Structures are given as C-alpha cells and as structure tokens.
Amino acid sequence: MSVIIRQALEQDEPSLxxxxxxxxxxxxxxxxxxxxxxxxxxxYAIPYIKLPTTWGFVLEDQTTNKVVxxxxxxxxxxxxxxxxxxxxxxxxxxxxAPDAASKPGDVYYTNLLRNMYTVSEANVQFSPAHLHIxxxxxxxxKGLGRKLIGRAVEYLRGEGLEGVWVGLDPRNLAVRVFxxxxxxxxxxxxxxxxxxxxxxxxxxx
Length: 205
Prior knowledge:
Strand order of the largest sheet: 1-2-3-4
Keywords: Acyltransferase, Transferase
GO molecular function: acyltransferase activity, transferring groups other than amino-acyl groups
Organism: Ephemerocybe angulata
Structural class: alpha+beta
Helix content: 25-40%
Number of domains: 1
Shape: globular
Oligomer: single chain
Number of helices: 7
Pfam family, one: Acetyltransf_1
Distance between the termini: 22 Å
Radius of gyration: 16 Å
Protein name: Acyl-CoA N-acyltransferase
C-alpha cells in the first residue's frame, strides 16, 4: 500500500463528503441514517476547503488514486464560525427543510443547520485552531492517523500557532484513546469532557 499526504483541494469535495458519511455514525457508516447523504460532509468536511481561515490535507492511495482520509481545520475558529453563520449555514438551511426530513440523521442535521453550535471560550483560549480527522475503516490502524496529525502540527507551527483542539463524539471511545495516545488532553474549563487539546510543543513525531 502506497499512501501519500497532500494538500486538500476543492476537487476533493466528493471524496471528502463520502468519507465523512462512511464514518459519521461514531466512526461507522451513517448511510442508513440519511436520505440526504451529503449532509454530514456539508457540516464537518466541505466548509474546510471553501471558507476563509481553513486548511486541510488528505490521504491518497496511489495504487487507486483515491482519497481515503483527511484532516481538516481552521486556524481561527471564531472567524470561521462568524463567516459560516453569515454565508454557509443560511443557504443550506433554506435548501434542506426540516419538514422534508424523515430519517434520524437528516432530522438532526436539518435542525443543526438552523441552530449551529459555537464552541466554548475555553476552547478558543486554549487555541484558536481546531481540526477534524476521518479515515476509511480499511485504512485505519496503520499509523496513518498519526501521520496526518503530524502534518497538521507541522503546518500549524508554521502559522505561528501553539495548540489545536478537537471535539469528540462521546459514543466513539476508540477515537478518544487514539487522541490521548498522541498527547491530547482534556481542556481545562471546557463545558464537557469531550474536548481535547494538544500543545504543539508536546508533539512527538
């Protein structure tokens, strides 16, 4: 298997959307939860290749030329939230009406588009930067997640940042173990225990 890491591009949108869907149910496929399978990606993946302050890298399998994983984020969460609130969420809220949703995943996301959460001040005080990472199941447990985090750390250091944080799905216990092994720790003052942060100086490649 020959897998490389490269910058995420707008033409990767279909792949990012598919990967997000196939891992959106606490690390498992959410296909059965949606009539609108694009919704998870429109919230957690696609904005990070389109909106200001964002960055991203993908895993590409060179034997198939397919994107099989990604790490995406923003350098400035508050600016990202503000821009998305004005420009990204409203058109999606108009397009995806709650009364047209019947499957549980669609109900959740159509409501979320109308009442998108913002992160706590504790998260932003820890670092303005946050990330999302997803890898197709068949490419997991091969050290690729660590490599993606390492590439993100390298990039964020170059941007003058000192930390990065991530929010976790509390149902996905394995992903918490993954982050904690890499040095992520609970953020002091965060409103729940599912917010983990990494000081970039503590990263061990």
